[in-house]
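DM from R.C. (forwarded with permission)

"hey, sorry to bug you on a friday — could you get me a structure for this? deadline for the figure draft is monday and I only need the backbone to look sensible"
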Amino acid sequence: QVHVVESGGGLVQPGGSLRLSCTTSGSIFSRYAMDWYRQAPGKQREWVAGINKEGTIANYRDSVKGRFIISKDNVENAGFLQMNTVNPGDTAVYYCRAQSCSIGPCDEYWGPGTQVTVSS
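My reply, with the result:
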């Protein structure tokens, strides 16, 4: 059983920064690519950023490019989403997904989410 847990959410002022963490237990972290999703009230969950299992290739949705940085430390068994220059539009519950793909369907595991609120 793989458990995924996010942490680091909270209240931050517009223009500020926040660092989210994602940890897994029950399996080898380096096996998993990692993605961050978010869901704002009344909206569908949307993909924010993703990184390959080696932690070497990252992608971002356009609205966070240049502001957010996704990273993955396979030694520390943790992934991160550094959020800079946040704005109220970034307010949402942020979810971490760990995904492992080989032959057949991918295995994916989700955390319960962490709330990020951007407000003055």
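R.C.: lifesaver. The CA atoms of residues 28 and 50 lie 18 Å apart.
me: no worries. The first strand starts at residue 3 and ends at 7.
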